[in-house]
Every structure is written in structure tokens, then in C-alpha cells.
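Q: A reviewer asked whether we had any structural model of the full assembly, not just the individual parts. We don't, so I'm hoping you can provide one. Inputs are below.
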Amino acid sequence: MSLLAILGVLSSAIFSGTSLLYTTLGEIVNERSGIVNLGLEGVLLVSAASGFAVTSLSGNPYLGVLVAVLAGGLMNLILAYLVVTRRANQLASGLALMFLGVGLSALIGKSFVGAKITGLPRFLLPGLSNLPTVFSSLFRFDILIILCIPVAFLVWWVLFRTRWGLSLRAVGENADTAFASGRNPFRIRYQALFVGGLLAGMGAAHLSIAYTMNWGEYMTGGRGFIAIALVIFSKWHPLRAIVGALLFSAAVAFQLLLQSSGVQVSPFLLDMIPYFVTLIVLMIWGGTRRQSAPASLGRVYQGTE
Amino acid sequence: MIVFAFVLFGLILLLSGKDPIQSYKDIFTSTLGSPYGFSEVLVAMIPMMITALAVALPSRVGLINVGGEGQLYIGAAFATWAALTFKDMPAWALLPLMTVLGMLGGALWAFVPGYLKAIGLVNETITTLLLNSVAPKVIGFLIFGFWHSAMDTVKTPNFVEAARLPTIFGTRIHLGMVFALILLAAFWAVMKYTRWGLEMRSIGGNAQASKRNGLPVKKYLIIVMCIGGAIAGLAGMSQVSGFYGVLLLNFSMSLGFMGFLICWLAGGEPVGILIMSFVVSVIFTGGNLLQLTRDLPFATINVLLAITLFVVLAQPSFSIVREKKK
Amino acid sequence: MKHRSIYALLAVLMISAMALSACAPAPAPTEAPAPPTEEPAAPVEAPTEVPTEAGPCLKIGALFGGAVTDAGYNQAMYESVQAIKQNIPCVEIITAENVPDEAGATTTMENMISQGAKMIFATAFNHQYPALDLSKKYPDVVFEHAGGWEMGENFANYFGDPVNAWYLMGAAAAKMTESKNLGFVAAFPLGWTLTFANAFELGAQSVDPEVKTNVAYTFAWGDSAKEAEVTNSLINNGADVITMHVDSPATVIGTAESRGAKSIGFQSLAAQQFAPENWISGTGYTLGDKLTWLASTVLDKTWKPIFLRCGMPDGCVAVAPFGPKVPQEVQDFVNQVRADLDAGKIVPFAGPIVDQTGAVKVKEGEVLTSDVMSNVDWFVKGIEGSPK
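A: Here is a predicted structure for the entire assembly that you could use as a starting point for your response.
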């Protein structure tokens, strides 16, 4: 188990965890305002497909990222319309959004399967250029990876240090009270969902444009649901989400390391561990207690009738 | 309003360069226009009805079971174990064994969420969702580790004849249809006529009041959740035994979630479940032909389904009526 | 006010999404960048032209497990089927992509037959049993399945045999590697996959006995994220030449290229575009002529169920052009090995062959047969990785 292999696990975790982190951050924003987005998988798919398509058409990966981000925001707005304005059930609406995403992304991406794109350019972290290529190529990061931790901090700062963030959390705890204190839950939830969608779009963009540089149907492989679990694991806190995303994505890389060291552990077992840990974490800290989940998560805010 | 959904999808088809009128014609002729097509619709309906029921029952006591996906996988796994281990058993013994095991598997998978909810620790929505993601990995572990056929590691060897639910008249409609119909009828009867049904509705309406009135709320929550899981497990068993004849990795195309949506659309009523399963099944089965004739990726049909759902969900009266019903 | 802006946004989303899918460019080039170095050697039966006033002379249905533009297995199968139409213009081909599992295959084939298809090409591994069952139900339709083993009265199996080509690629890789460590990204530990890896390593050993091959699994036929992971992991373990047995080589090769590793392609010659610099060579299935011949026998009613297997000399498996960094001497060497393989002077699986534990799997003087190759559950000595 050489140094290269261990660093390789770290590098892998960072690469595949970036998209997970962005998506989780987006969902944290959503859920902090009280809305669960079960359709996250669909949002990711549509963003990934649109971003990939635009990159392929225009040859410009940055444009693709922009489109992916916007697509994510727009998809979430559909959810916002259903759940906030129409007061539909969040779970059903989310699932319907998921189906929409699966179908729409297939339609968008159909002409682009197997297309070759120029992915996001990768930069070497300063000071590492003296290492042999094999090492340094581990740490050639694209702009989205470099930004993901700052963005996590930004989300934390917005949620906990700005007035808007405060209102958002207030709405998430109890929409009626928030309304009574002069805030507009409807507008705030729309904004939260939009921002959450933008972040999810960034995650999807990284997956298709920067990491795999490929598009295929269902390529997100359950990341949407992993993100929902991660939100719980990180107790709705953006900074803990960083650790969570790293852990979840390190599981795959770690399993490969074991494989090549001759240890035969079923990859499926290893993949299960993060979920069980999340479950245990939930049981210990209590998912229905006030300190963790936003209290009005999942409930429909009726507004004043 | 549903017409609006069809029009919108037609617009999308048009923009993609396909002929919407012809597409809709294709959907309807391939499903309702031929006996084979119609039988395919019925085949697709079977798991949808059962998974919808797996959501409907727990919803009566106020439980939200989004875990159908996972429960049906585990039910399928248990049934598969029996199918692979008891290859020489005759069908009249093997099939009931598989059925019972399927239900047991699903119930087991629902037990933990039910229990955690009953003792007030964790929301069952979250736990069932988490376990959903774990279930396919369990299946993967079992298939790769122990059950895979020599030729292909993605699935088990084909089930023996005795392990397969019999089909009707040369179509692919299998005995699972009978299961589904019996369960629907039983559900209706229990809710309407038995004391349990009354007590469940009472707990679903106001758990606190029911507890004060002496109803064993915790027991109900756990048991009903487990029964819901058992039903979903049965769906898994019927798919694996009746439809596929083999355990395939990721065989469920979001069946559990589809069931959730159908139950939601039907308001948790058995007749509604029957009708909505039929409608959704027509859409899906018809979509299969679209791929051949219109050169659309098969997944596109999800868009029609989703738009239809949106339109229904967006009805304000619809949603509020549902809320009040709870 | 809120509603109107939402509708507007929705409309924008829908329209832009649809516009994207509508005005898409031509898909990834389906031609290899340069014509393959192989001329099909098998004689092509002159197609019997049936005059067509009333529709096509033959309707063919073809189903694929994935996307036909995947630059991999499905694309190779698709192009092979399309070659029929190029050779016999009066034929009509109905295609269905992304039909991975059995149940979907049955429905798709039924639909095709109801549309008048009289010949079905089921190209994915999982299509075998549904096709076999349907062949009993429709005795007047001819079913051809790719990559299986069953046979029936109106059901046959065909495939290319790339084993020799893998040996060849192993030799090429060994010539180009500096770290003496080759990486093989595999989907599942299936018999044929192990055989390919074994052939690869044996070919490498024929050049340099110290070269090792590292095999790692993604446990999926087409999971790009996993493929990227596994490729990176192999490279991190020291491999500097990467090859694979997954559905589409695109991600594996693209990732290898981005890490500066060399690559050898498989499934389809279209893979080369993903590694413009560090490509060594590759193989792809080019079954077009054989399929044309099969279709022509259906047309003139002389079709018989044949277990069709053909390799490099028959034109069923083509070798890709060399990449820009391959020196001329290596190219000459590889071409020589190829000539020897075609002539039968080199037989990859001729004994003695020893497995990872040291046990003799093929005795001196024996040769491994095709049947055994499909059921292999061991790796030759020199491969690191688990065969299970």
C-alpha cells in the first residue's frame, strides 16, 4: 500500500465527493427552509444533461456549467410552484419531479451520448509541480473542486450570519411564527429552493462536465438520494456536510484500495456502511428532536386562510 | 385538466421533432388496441397495485411509507433464497413458501423504521428512505457473493419452473394479479368493516386522543408498518417469480416510488388504486412502443407521467382535501 | 404575479430543453478516425435482390442494451447491423436502444414482430433467453443473438472472437509500458472477461515476462463514475497502460488520457478519439459483413442456425490504427505478431499455462477450447486481482 495509493484514495474522494458536496449543500438550504426535495435525483440528471449538451454544442465548458446551474434552479422552481403556491404534498411532488428529471434528461441527452467534450481545465495546486506526473495528476483540480469548500463556508455564512439566512431558518422551524413576525414564508421558500437548485446544478455540472466527461441515462446513480441521506448525516449543517461528503465518497475509493491490496471485501458491503452510520447517528441524536431537523420539514404551510 | 397534461407533452414531442398525434395513437393502439398490448398493461399493473397498497395501509395510521422500494427488494431476496435452495420442491409447496418469505423479508425491512417511529425517535420518512438505498446493495452483495450464475454475475440462475408463478392463457399475466386483487379487496373490507380498521383510522386521525382512549398506538404503528412492508415484499416476490423468473440487480424501476405516487393520486382508496395503476400502466406500456416508432428514448415517457402528476398535484382543492382527510 | 413569472420560467425551461434536444449536432463520429488496417477477408455472398414495390424486402429488428453512440459495444453492434442496409439497400431496419433487461427485451421484440420484422438481432447478453422463448413462439422469424451460446431451430448465436486480438494488444502494451504495470478495468468477473485479461497478460509476457497486469472491477457494465474511479485507482497503483472490458471505453480512456497514461481500446474502434495522444492501439467488433451474409441467407431462404464465431482473420475483429506516439519499430513488431497469430503460428492458450497459485491449468501440448474459455475462473500468473 504505497503512498501513491493512499493519496489516490484521498484524491478520488475529493473528485467524486465534490458533486456530492454541492448537491448536499443545496438540499441543506432547501430543508432548512422546510422543504424536502425527493426529486433531487431528477434535478441532478437534468442539470447534468443540459450542461453536457451545451458544452458539447458550444465547446465551452464554462458555459455548460452555467447552463447546468441554471437548469438546477429552474427544476427546483417547479417544485417550489407545486409545494409552495399549490400547497401540494412535498413527497409526492418531489417524486414526480424525479420522474420528470429522468425522462427530460434522457430526451435532452439522447443526441449527446458518447460525445467527446473538452471538460473543465484542471489546475495544479501551487507548489506541486515538482512531483512526477503520476503524483501531481492526482491533485490537478478543476475550478469547481477548488471552489467547493469556499462555497460550503459561504452557505454556512449565509445561513447563519445573514438576515436572509435567519429568516430562512425561521421559516423552516415554524412558518406560522415566521409569518407572524413579518416574514413572507412563500417568497423565502421560493428563494431557498432556487438557490438550492443552483447548488445542485453545480454538483451535476461537475459530474458530467469535469469528472466523467460523459453522459449516459441515469448517470447520477442515486447521488440525489445519497445527498438526502448526507443532509441528515451532517445534521443540516453545511460545514459538517464537507466531512460527510468526503466520507461517503471515500468509501468507494477505499474499497478499490482494498481490492488491489488483495483484501476481498464486497463493494456492496462497504457502500452500505455510510448509510448505517447515518442511521445510528440519527438514533443517537434523534431525528425528530428540535435541535436537528427543522421542525416544519415536510409539512405544508397553509398560509393564512 | 388531465387534457392539459397531454397537450403539454404533445408540445414537447412536437418541439423534439416528433409527431404528437401519431405518438398518442401509438400509445393507445399498442396498449388498448391489441389483446397482447392489453395483457402487457395488466402485467405492468400488478406490482404497482401492490406497492400502492403498501403505502396505503400505513397511511391509515398516519405513517408515511416511502420505503416500498427497499422492502420489495428484500422480499424478493428472501423469495429468491427459497427458489434457489429448494429447487426440487414441487410448485404447490415452493410457491407458498416463497410468498411467505417474501412477505417476511418486506416486513423485516419495515420493522426498524416502524419501531423507531413508534418510540418517537426518528421519523419513518427518513428511515425508510435510507433503507431504500441500502436494499439494492444487500441484493448486490447476495448475488455476487453467493447466488450468481456461472455465466453472469449480475443475476442469479434462472428460477426453476416450480418457483415461477403460473401465467394465464399464454400471456405474461401471472398469479400476482390474483394476489393484488385479493389484497385490495381485503384492504377495503378490513378498513370498512372491522374493528381494526376503525381503530387504525382513529389513530391516523389523532394519535394522542387514541392513546388516551386506551388504544395500543405503539403496537399498531409497528404492526401496521410491518404489514405494509410485507405487502411491498410480496410485490417484490411476485415480480421476481412471476415476471422475471430470476433475481436481477436493480430490477425495480422505481416501483416503490411509483406505488407511493399512485396511492397518493388515488387518495389511498382501493378502487382509486386500481384505476390509477391502470392509467399509469397504460402510459408506461405505450411508451415502450414510442421508442420503436418515434425514435424517442424509452425514458421519455416519464415526462408524460410526471406532467400528469404535476397537473393533478397542482389542483389546490385536491391537496387540501387530502390534508383534511388525514 | 408569482404565477405568471413561474409559468414564464417553466416555459423557458421547457423550450430551451427541447431546443437543445432538437437542434443537436450529429452524434459522435461513428467512423474510426482512419480506415481500419484490415480488409474483410471473408467472401460476402452476393445479396439476392428482391424487387421491392411493396415495402422493404426484409424488415429487421435490432435491439441494443445501451446507447448506440456509446463509442463502445453498442455502437459496434449497431454499426454491424447498419452495414446490412448499406450492403442490401432494400432492407428496413427498426432499432431500439437502451433495452438492458429481459422483460423490456421481450416487449420490444414483440413490438418489432408486430411491425413485421422477420429477422431479429438481439445484441445484448441479457437478450438471449427472451429471444429464445420468442423464437419458439414465432417459428417464422429468425433470431440472431450476440455473445451467447444457445441454439434453436430459428435461433442462432454469433459473435466476434477477440482472444487473439487481446494477445496482440498485450504484446503492444508490453512494448510501450515503462512501469511494467498494465491496468485492466473490468465490469464483472465473467468467464470471457477473465479470458480476455489472461490473453492480454500472456501477450504481454511474450514480450517481457516481468510485466504484470492489474485487474479491478467496477461491478457495472456502464457506470462512468465508477469507471473513472477504478481507472484512477489502477494508475495510482502504478499502471501506465490502461485497457478495459466494459460497455463503453469512453470514460476509461478519457480518464487515462487526463492522467497521462497510455490506453488500449476495446469494443469499438471509435474509442480512439478519446485519447488523441496516448493511444496505443485497440480492437473493435466489425461484424458487418458476416451479418450481411446472414441477412442475405434469410432473404433467399437458405438460413440455417449456425454458431458463428469469427476472429481477426475473418474481419470480424478489427485492429485500430496506432496512436501518434507509437514508434515505427513497435508497429512493425505488432504487425508481425499479428501475422503470426493469423497464420496460427502463435496460439495464445497453448500449454503450459500456470495460474496465480502456480497450478497448471493448461498442460504442455494442450490448447484451451472456446467452451472452457467462457467458463474460466482463474487468472494466469502475472495478473494481480481476484478472479471471483
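A: Points you may want to mention in the reply: The longest helix of chain C spans residues 2-22. DSSP finds eleven helices and 15 strands in chain C.
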